[in-house]
Structure formats: structure tokens, C-alpha cells
Amino acid sequence: MSDFPTKTRCVVIGAGIVGNCLVGHLSDMGWDDIVLLDKGPLPNPGGSTGHASNFIFPCDHSKEIVDLTLDSQRQYEELGLQNTCGGIEVARTEERMEEFKRRMTSAKCWGIPSTLLTPAEVKELVPFISEDVILGGFYTPSVSAVDSLETGTQMRKRAQEAGHLQVFANTEVTDIETTNGKNKPKVSAVVTDRGRIECDTVVVACGVWSPRIAEMAGATIPLTPAVHQMADVGPFDVLVETQQELAYPIVRDMDTFCYERQTAGSMEVGSYAHRPILHRVEEIPSNDEAALSPTEMPFTADDFDQQMEEAIELMEFLGDGEIKYAINGLLSLTPDANPVLGPTVEVEDLWSAAAVWIKEGPGVGRLVAEWMTHGYPHLTDPHGADIARFYPQQRNVHHIEARCEEHFNKTYGIVHPREQWDSRRDVTTGPVKARTDALGAFYFEAGGWERPHWYQSNQDLVQNYGIQEREHEWDGRWWSPISDAEHLHLRDHAGIVDLSAFQIFEISGPGSLEYIEHMVVNKCDVKVGASIYTPVLNPSGGFRSDLTILRLGLERFRIITGAFDGGRDEYWFRHNMPGDGTVQFENRTNAVCTLGVWGPNAVDLLSALTESQLDQDAFPYGSCQEILLAGIPTEMFRVSYVGDSGFEIYTAMQHGLALWDAIAEAGQAFHLRPVGAAVYGTSGRIEKGYRLMGAELENEYTPVEAGLARPKVKAADFIGKADYLAARDDSPCAQLCVLSMNDLACEAGYNRFPMGSGNEPILSPTGERIVDAKGRVSRVTTAGNAPSVGKYLLMSYLPVELCAPGTELQVMYQNELYPVTVEATGPNLALFDPQNDRMKN
Amino acid sequence: MRVLVCVKRVPAPGSRINITPDGLNVDTSHLGFTTSPHEECAVEEATQIVEQHGGSVTVLTVGPPEAEEQLRYAASVGGNDFVLVVNDTGEDWDPQRTSTAIVEAIIDLENDAGEYDLILFGNESADAGGYQIGIKVAVALGRPAVNGIKGIDISGNTLTARREVDSGYEVYTLQAPAVLGVKEGINLPRYPTMKGRLASKKAQIDRRDSSTPPGPQQKVRLHQPEETVTETQVLGNGADAAAAVVDLLADLGVL
Amino acid sequence: MPGLYVFIEHDQGSFSPASREALTAARKLGERLQEPVVATHIGKANPEFKALCEEYGVLEGVILEDPKLLDYGPELWGQAIADLLALRNPRVVLSIGTDRGNEVLAQASARTGIPFVANCVDVSYGQGWNLTRLQWGGSLLEDSAVDSPTIFLTYAHHSVDDVPTPAPTEAVIDAVELDLDPILSRTMIQDRVTLTEGTTLSTAAVVVSGGRGVGSSEGFACLEELAELLSGKVGCSRAVTNNGWRSHADQVGQTGTRIAPEIYIACGISGAIQHWVGAMASKNILAINTDPEANMVTKAGYAVIGDLHEVIPAVISEIRQRRGMGS
Fold it and tell me: Which of helix, strand or coil describes residue A263?
């Protein structure tokens, strides 16, 4: 046993699949002084890895998750610890069969070979299945089962053998000490029951215990331990006689939220169908107190009875198997079901690598190691897993438990891309909520805020404009024809948009210009009152964010970013502050209310409320001025994300309601209608070809490829500049394009409407996947109707040779192909008013 | 053969058993519950006897309302009738009160449906380990009783019971009706099947109250035994340690 | 007059080691309670009884005789103690918590209504009886109060060291003729079957025990070989019997055999508490385990870190070499 160290570079806490894989990758990337701790024994310290079912269904609808899963499968395979047995998801309902079409689409997009099976074909692969209870199957031959404990052991050994790692099991962390960092507390030491280790970096890879460990340093890791029940049943002759660990494909009985996985002579039956059973971290027993392991909690049989009945329906022989082992296994759930990865927002050099399934473990190990080594990972853009995505009101147990209760039973559920949460609503509302409620607003949640998506009060416009309902329920779910009507009304008259959810930061102080120049691509040394729309890059030159900056004073800037991006952006801006007091950062989101007014009548309407001149000459596009509107102090910013002239208007939160009322009253003479975010975020935007962070814009692509590179590069240095310059010098291998659908009719004869949720591939005329020279697949990043153009539009990156307008391609939606044509590429992707005459009239 | 098995609901602890702050009970907040191991074997033995010789198995427990879980478990592995004598006092009853309550219930049950040919107990419960309930019940009913049984053969009314001792076993021959206290190892109890578990949900449970007065023994508190901290002397790693091991054996005089 | 009656366990006249623990315990308790100790022998007169009493400083003995007491029978013996209660009105009857000790006193308790408390480790009398006794096989202790002038109790097996204290004077042995109900013979031993001659698991000086880490029933071959070389016995953990690798008779632990050898060699046993309570009376423990943090290792006085399948054969070969047996 080596002596316990007193100093190291990096302490990784938790020797489950994530911690072990992380130390292996850190070692590979040159970290040569790492200590791995776990309070339990090795190789199974008693966390969720130890009781995992260890199987991997690679197909998911999320690119980020699939990237992590496929990388993990490659790593398991390289270690020789993967058993590729195939897997079948079976459907008992028509709705599930529809979902399988969506899964086929995702599988095509990610290049995962999969097929749809008839019940008879399922039975050929799984002879003991009761084919009469199923309608079909979704078969993926690359489904595998892995040895996660041995993988962890080998990854750990790799780092130990390189001389980079010391491992201490049975070592309990009792505190994480911090010292004053640049802008916030910084980790300085890990205290354990064996001694104290000074260190520069700490990673919390503690699975269900992560919140408690992070809290020792003053950080939050928003997850909750939750129960997943499983039982080992057997033995069965039909399985014993195979003399194999896994002779048959793993079956997921999707509509009962259960799975059946052979383990030699027995079958493991697991469920996500039981009531959500959440535990608090402090309720988890210690290794000593637990009858089995801390995360193998006592089985509550009553919760599993229905699943047993359903399992017997599917595989009759299961009824006669003995239940030899049954547990309430604990796993980690997060409020949005994604992992929580990356640097914590509260404490410098304290990292989270938590809420990770076995199928993502090795990939997450690599990704977090890259992130720690290079400042941002290459493996995939983890913005959906970035721990900084959560706002303060989403980091507490009320939110975590409410959301986890809600989504636990959706683990195998059919989740619509636009699906909205039921729980924890109306927690964050803007000042005009009473008015938008009265107008029958249908709210979507945007970064926790309630944001009107369309208004029932505009129902009359649907008839006026003759907008059709969508025939397929799936296409019409979480959508309303009112949105298209609102769009056309705005184009004809004027619309007011509640933008309270905008994230607003203010930067001030003598160092602010230098600081902000360092943060963003475009030049910020503009005259006071001017605006800058700019990409923000990662150190490696990929997109981190895009946002708008207003220069409000010589040493004062306002940053406006999207409701979904505020957490990550705030982390990034705060993280990079100089720390010498020359720059102050203030999050003013909760102090500033934003309303948008656009349309041909917008300027006249607003002029009626002020003495100030609002015409283009007095108030040019892109500028910002302090204006008294109906006697209310505001800052008006002439800009448009929807393609018509108008303003974003900022006022103090307490004036928001009065401002809304004043505009609404004046608006009566100008046919003003409230317009929802569906117009603002999708139909208005796509007609103008505007890009959206998290859709078109992500770390994998550069501003050059997105068509957002300016003709010149500023002299000042900025994060990602070297790679940005290199990208400008290279001719890009892909470009962002707008495509239109030639024909929306599906095989059944009615129109279908792709969602643009990221999993719909653009295919060649012969139906092949399109992959650019850097291995990136062409897929729909945004889809939406363009009512003023009369087309249904898609956005996608395409290899440059396919970017020419007029190029004929196909898109896959719900496993059917539709012809599409490239409409535009390059900087200007607008199909509506491409010269911007309307915005600048 | 009509067989009655008496079982007790006990926590299923890990390697450290925590005590509630009042010192009176095991802290079961992290724990599941089970049937004492000897009694699990008693249920299995009864089930096998009935499978072989016909008859029925009645399972009886004195315990809190939650002890229904243990009766249902018994139902999932073979029992036919189930009796719960409810102890809703929130604390374990002492041996006298427990055995009196069982005797009352048995007299009642036998009045209704006839004598039990065999009553099985576990040798002792996993938690309290009083070593006397079965014997007290037997004496009260005037029936023969032997404890420590790891084998039962039945021929007509004659029960041949084997009791394990160090060197082998002792043989006892009893005439039914009789009482036996069995030990783990008499059989390997089966696990419930999924069908068995589902069927057990439908089992009827005969709930009874008992007005037995408290007995003379009162639990004052539970506590952890004093932990002897052992300084472990590591003799070596792997095969290289062989010489040191043999030295130790020689020192202890066992070589 | 009252007194503290200690019931001496024997099998067909041969005293069990537990009877010596009982005498030691009785003498100590007698001192504490200021009660004379009377050794009690059930069955026909045994010439060694008097010597045994004197060896442990007990000056008075009583033999409970009845022609029906041909062999051990729980009901006969229990009734004999019940009769003793009527004859002598003892304040305490105690024994050791072996199978027979607990069984006889439970029978006597059932027949007399005197409370019986099993497996005590400490006994005193204040406002009634204050007892500390084992729960969970010894994983926990229970303080218990018993409201009764008279009590039957057993001390936990192996909890009392066998300490002879020669008596200053000769012991006086009385004999009492009982008249036991013949029906009680129905539970007398009918037959004995001997499976092992000589040393047994509970009396062996060396126990070589295997756990889950042994891997299979075949894996026990080297443990068997080592045990044989050391004239010891092979034991195992509950995981092993549950896997069907060995008979339950070999199981050491709360629900198996309690042992107290000179040395317990625990191979590949993690040391769950239920196992530990069966082995903790061992005088020395050597744990062989790949995990230096296993409970068994941290609780053992001696440890070898390594795979038992490498360590045991090396130990066997070392022993053979030293004995000039070659390997």
C-alpha cells in the first residue's frame, strides 16, 4: 500500500465507470499526477456501476448522446469487453410503431444500422417471445452488453501503469477545501479519513453521491438518486442450454417500460414503469450499513408486480423462474435527463462528471478529460450536458425532484421534440404575464421562464389567412396554426412579442473594452449606442455562443443572449474575467424587461408614444437610444430577428406592465397583435435565415462554415482567434444552407412537417447519408414553415459541393423520404426580403 | 398432514447494524425486511412435507401490520393459510407474551379446523434470539418438542428428527402432534417464482388481535458491542508470505 | 435456602467444554450476588462430578436422579430443572447457551413460568434483574430488565473463559431422586449417528475456512489439504453453502457453527457480520484476501494479501518442506 499523498495535481473522486475512464483518458492526455479516491472497495465500490445492467442501445434522438454512446462502444470494443448481441425494441401500440419510424430516422442519421421487424421476424430472433402481444420491433444489431467493472479496472490500471495515478479505495472524502480564486472560490485540497491532499483540480464523479460531495466545496450538482427496479429470474432451460452469457438479443418492451436481458441461464427483468421513487443523498446507506451495496436498496415488490405480469405476457416462461435477486437499484436522474458535466459554476477547478449511464461512461471519461485538457471537448459539443445550463431556480431539490418525478416514466417514453413540462411551471414569469394570460397565451418554457408561444386570442386570424391544421397528430402536437397566422399578421401590420426571458448581462469598469474584445470575435470598440452581433468561440475555434452586445457607454456594455444559453454564457464570461477588479459583471436578467415590436406599422405605432424621432435616419438600424415611451424610460434597440422593422425595447422590470399596456393601447389603431415565440424563434427567423445557438451553431462548426465570418478580422486578440484565422484561410468543407421541401406529401398522401430536432438526415438523391470531409453528417438543424415565402424550409450544413442553390436532395422524416432543393448558402440565407428593405425602411 | 409454521419479520441488515436514537430498536431506515433464516427453512420444510405427504401449510406470525409482507412471501413459496397476530404496540414482545399470543391463536385455529400434526419454529429468531418460543408453545399445548433439527422424516404419525451435533447427529422419534425447532441447512429454501409472487397477492390473511398482557422481560436499550481495534499484522503478499505463515503456525503450536 | 444452581451439560456422562465455562461463570456470578453456587448434574451419579466441582471451586453439588434419565431428552431434563426449583427454590439457574443449555432452560421456564433469558454476557441484580445479552448473534447487545425474583439464564457460548479455581475444601455432593412423568421420555434421544470421529468444527484447534473467493466447490481442495496437514477442520461462509459448494454443517456464523479455535484461517472471506459473530471467539485469526480493506482483514490479527489459490499451496509446500515431507 503506497503512502497517502499530501499533494497532487488532480483528485478524481469516485471509481465508477466515469471516474475510472476519466483517469485513463487524463493519463493519456498527459496528466501525470492524479489521485483517484473512492469510499468503497475495488473493483466494485458500491455505486450504480456495480449493479448496472450493462447493455447499450446506441440509437438515441440526441446527437450529443449518440456521439458519447458510439465512442463508448468503440472503447469497450477496444478493451475486448463488449459482447455485441443485438437488441430489439418491441412495440405493443401503434403510437410506438410511429416512434420506431422516428428511431429509424435517427438511426439513419447517425449511421447505426437498424431495421423494422414484423412480429414474426422478432420471433425468429427471440423464439420465446409471445408475438401476438406485439405489433413489431426495431432491431439494432450493434446493441451490446459490456463489462463496466472490468473496463473501469483496466482504464485505472492504464493510468497506474503509466505512473500517472495513485488509487485509494475505502477512503472517504470528508471535505473539499477552497481558497480565494480569480473570480470565485477555487479548490485547494481534498480532506479524507486518511489525510488531506492539496490539489489544483477536483473532479466529482460520484454518481448518486455527487451533490453531497460538491456541496462540501459549496457547489451544486443537480441530480437526485432514483430507483430503477430489477430482478434476476431463472434458471430457464431455454437459456441454460445456450451455454452463453447472451445468446439472444436484448429485448426492450417499450410500451411497458421494461427490458429482458439474458444473463447466462437467467433473465434480468428491469423496469422504468414503477412509480418514481426518489431518495435524498443522505438516505443512502454506507457500504457497512447496506445489506447488499449502498445503491442496491431493498426491493419494494409491490412496485414491480405489474411489470412482472407484463413480462410474463411477453415471455410466458418467465412466470416459472425463481426471483433470485431483486433490488431497488439507485441511479442518478437530473431535471432534464441529461448528464451534468463540466466545470461547476460556483467553484473554480471543481468539475462534475455525473449522471452518466454505462452506455456513455467511457465517452464521458474522454470528453471531460478533453475539456479539462483543452478548455473544451472535441468529441462532441456537450452544451446539453453542460452543468452550467441550469439556472439557480433549477439547482435545488424542489426543482430536481419535481422534474425527475415527471420524466422518470418517460425513460422509455415517447417524448415529443417540442414537449413541455407539467411540473415547476410559473416559477419564473415576466411582468406582463397577467396580460398574456388574458390573451390566452400558450406558454413554452424558455430557460425556466414562461414565454407565450402563441395566443388563443388570435384564433380569428387563422380563418382570415386560411391556415390549415396539420393532418398528422404528431406534426400538430405542441404546435398551432395560430402561429402562422400571427406571422402573416405581423408581416401585414404589427406584432408585440414578450421577450422577458432574454438573458441580460452588463459589463462595466475600466477594463471592460479590453475584456470584451478578448471574449468575442467581432470588434467591440464601436461608438456608444452601437451594437455588435458576434460569435463567441471556444479556445479551439468552434462556436460557443452567438450574442448581441450594446455599447451603452465608454466603459459599459450590455450583453443580450438567449433564454436557453444564459447559464453557459454567464459561466464563460465570469470565468474569463481578469480578476483584478477592472471589470464588473452583473446579471441584469431579473431587472430588465424586454418587449419587441415589429411589423410595417411598428415605427409609426411607437412614434405615437414618444416625441423622439424613430425613423431610420434618426434612429438607424443596429443602434440603441434612450427613449421615453409613454413617459416610461426605455432603451430602444433597432434590430430584428423576424425580418420586419421594429425594436427591442428594454425597460426596468417594474415598468414592464405599464409599457405593455401603453403599446397595446396605442397599437389598437395599428392592428397590433400579440405574437408568440413560434414566430420569433422559428418562422420569422427561418425566412431570414438567422442561425440559432444549439441548432445551427455549435462547437463542431466555425463562423466561416456558418456564414458568419466578417470580411475583416479585428486586430485585438480573442479566444479562439488562431483557429478562427486558420478556418478563414482554409476553404470550408461544409456550409450552412437553407433548403426548401419540394413536396410535403407522405406515402399516405397527406402533408408531413419535419421537426428540425436535429435527427433528420439530409440524404443524397439515392438515399445515402451525406457526410462532409470532416466526418460531419448533414442533418436538419431547424425546420419550419415560411408563410411569407410559401415554402417549408430546412436548415442544414452541406458539403460545399452540394451547396449550390438548385441542388436536389432528400430529407428523411419519420422513415420516409421527401425531395428538397437547396435555396441559399453563404452569409445571407434570407429567402424573405433578402435585401432587408423592410427592416431598414 | 396439517403443518403450522411460525415465522418472524426481521430486518435484513448489512455488516453494521445501526440503532435508533432512543436505543430501543434497529434503525431500519435503509433496510428491507425478511423472515429469519431458520424460519425460511421451516416454511420450505413444511412445503416439502405437504408436497410429499399431502395436507396444508399454515403460516403464522406475531408482528406489526407490515409483517403481512412476510406472510405474502411465504405464500409466494408455498403456504396455504396465513395468520397475522397483530402486535401494534410498536415494540417487540417478550418471549412470554409472544408465546402466549401464539398459543391462544393456535387453540383458536385448532378449534375451528382441527389439530396441527406438526408445528415448526425456527431454532431462534435472527434478531432477539430468545431460543424459547417454540418450546413454550409446545409445553403449553402439551406436545413434545425438540430444537436444533436439520432433518425430518415422516412415516404415518411418526416423525424422525435429526439434530445436528458436532460429531454427527442425534435422532429423536416423536409422535404427532409435535413441535420442532429447525435450523438453516435442513434444506435450501426455494425462491419465489414470478407467478408465485403474483399469486401471493391474492392470499387471504387472517388478522387477529391479541389481548395478552406484557411479560416480565423488558428491553432497556440496544447498543453496539465494544469494538476491539485490531492492529492487523500483514505477513506478506501472495505466495511469498508462506514462510511467515508457517512461522506463525509454529509459534501457536498448531503445526 | 436459595442459591445459584449451575446446570452441568454432559453427554452420556462426559462433560462438555461448555460445562467448564458454566462453572466459571457461575462462580463469578455467585460472588457478585453473594449466593452459594450449587452444581447440578442431571442423570445417574457420575464419579467425576465431584472432582469437576472442586476444580472450579464449587463446594456443593446436587445430582438429580431418575431411572428414566437414561439419556438426554429436553423434556426430561427440563422437568428435572423444574423439579429442582420446587425442591430447592434457587434464585438462579444458569447454564451456557449451547443447543442443550438453551433448550433445557427453555423447557424448565415453560414448565415453571420462571423467565428464561438466553445468551447473556453480563448479569446483575438491582431493582430486579439487569442483563446484557446478545442480539443478532452478537452483532448487537441488549440491556434487558426482568421483573422476577427467580431467573433462568444462559451465558453466551465462548463469552466466558474457562478458568479453573481449585476449591479450598472438598465438595459435598447430594443426590435427589425425582419422579419424572414417563411421558416425557418421548423426546429422549433414540439413536446417534457419528459422521466425524475426533475433532469437530467446533472443537478443532485449527479451522481453515473459505468464502466466495474460493470460487467453486473444487476450489476447496487446497483448503482441505491444509486443514488435514494441521489436523484441523474446513469451514465456510454462508455464501458458500448458498452456492451449494459445501454442506451447511461446515458453515461458520450466526446461523451455522460458532467456533473458537486456536487459529482461524479465513480464505477469501469478506467478513460479513453474520459470519464474524461465528468466528470472533477464535484466539487468533489469519485472513487471506486479495482486498486489504476487506472486513475480515481489518478485523484479523494477521493477514496475507493475495489470492488464496496462490497462498495456500505455497503454505502447504512450506509445511511439507519443514516436515521433511517434500512437496
Answer: strand
